[in-house]
Design brief:
Layout lengths: L2 H11 L8 E2 L2 H10 L2 E7 L4 H21 L2 E6 L14 E6 L2 E5 L5 H9 L7 E3 L4 H5 L10 E6 L4 H17 L4 E6 L5 H6 L7 E6 L2 E5 L6 H9 L8 E2 L6 H15 L1 H51 L1
Parallel strand pairs: 1-3, 2-3, 6-8, 7-8
Antiparallel strand pairs: 2-4, 4-5, 7-9, 9-10, 10-11
Helix pairs in contact: 3-4, 6-8
């Protein structure tokens, strides 16, 4: 019998209400996420009827989740971490797999919750980089690996971090239809991002049969993403998937990207360059003037000496 099941049995034997999930604090959840393979967390708040419904469903599932997944099932009240996983307020259920969050966005039904979690025990979203992107997606050829819905993100992007749990939910919805992936535009996928002229994050692109469709909607909920990938992309003008850039073209794109991301640094650098150029011209002019004045003095002296010689001859 697992330690979690023993703990659950002891709670019941000790008389704790079966309707109560274990209440923990934010720091305890962080520790569980780091150390446990599976954690199911209910983000709740006080005086919330919907939260009570969520808790009742999870309570009925608790023993099954412990037996099938060996998962910790806990709740947090008025947690500051809620906004990291969902754009909405409590209640919210998040399933952590090896620390990777998946936001449950389906109906409050114990069977559906259990089905979603047991069918997504491993993270769904694939991580692509410059070395693997074309090989795995075959985006330019539209060949045999199927459609790909890709999020371009960066580690410094707050919105991207808050989207991770939702993007995993998108992957769970679409896993039988297409591939869902992420590319780090700032590091391991910088060249790939430049290939598709992507300079802002988050950006979402559907690659389908040799064409690409960009998601321009700023509604970042799971339902909107899934709808776009399944059907709504038809309302977007398709673009031809460009082939990987040649080294020189990629260098130009990298320069443009750097200038866009660092406008002030570029302006300061250009100002310094221009100032240095002006200063060098001024220095050259100043050096030139003394030389010219010396030549003029010499010519005047030569004229005077010539005049004196001619006067003596006369």
């Amino acid at each position: 019998m697992s330690s979690k099941l023993i703990f659950l049995t002891l709670l019941i034997l000790c008389g704790q209400s079966k309707a109560d999930l274990e209440l923990i604090q934010d720091d305890e959840l962080v520790n569980l996420i780091r150390t446990e393979k599976y954690v199911v967390a209910l983000f709740s708040k006080k005086f919330c009827p919907d939260c009570e419904n969520y808790e009742n469903e999870l309570t009925g599932l608790r023993e099954d989740l412990v037996e099938t997944l060996n998962a910790w099932v806990v709740k947090l009240i008025d947690s500051s971490m809620t906004r990291l996983y969902t754009p909405n307020k409590e209640p919210a259920i998040v399933f952590f797999r090896h620390g990777i969050p998946l936001l449950y966005d389906g109906p409050v039904n114990d069977e559906l919750i259990l089905h979603t979690f047991t069918n997504n025990k491993e993270p769904v979203v694939k991580e692509l980089n410059d070395d693997t992107f074309e090989h795995l997606t075959q985006a330019a050829s539209g060949a045999t690996t199927g459609d790909w819905f890709v999020q371009f993100y960066s580690t410094s992007c707050v919105d991207c971090h808050q989207l991770q749990a939702r993007w995993e939910a998108v992957g769970a919805h679409l896993k039988s239809r297409m591939n869902v992936a992420r590319v780090n535009r700032a590091t391991t996928g910088a060249k790939t991002a430049r290939r598709f002229n992507i300079f802002e994050v988050p950006t979402f692109v559907l690659f389908r049969q040799g064409k690409m469709y960009k998601y321009h909607n700023h509604d970042y909920n799971v339902e909107s993403f899934v709808s776009f990938a399944q059907d709504w992309y038809k309302n977007v003008k398709p673009e031809i998937v460009p082939v990987p850039k040649a080294p020189f073209d990629d260098l130009v794109a990298a320069t443009v990207s750097f200038m866009k991301e660092n406008p002030y640094l570029w302006q300061v650098g250009f100002g310094s360059l221009l100032g240095g150029l002006i200063l060098s011209i001024v220095i050259r002019v100043l050096k030139k003037k003394p030389a010219e004045s010396k030549r003029n003095n010499k010519s005047e002296k030569a004229k005077k000496s010539g005049a004196k010689k001619s006067a003596k001859k006369e």
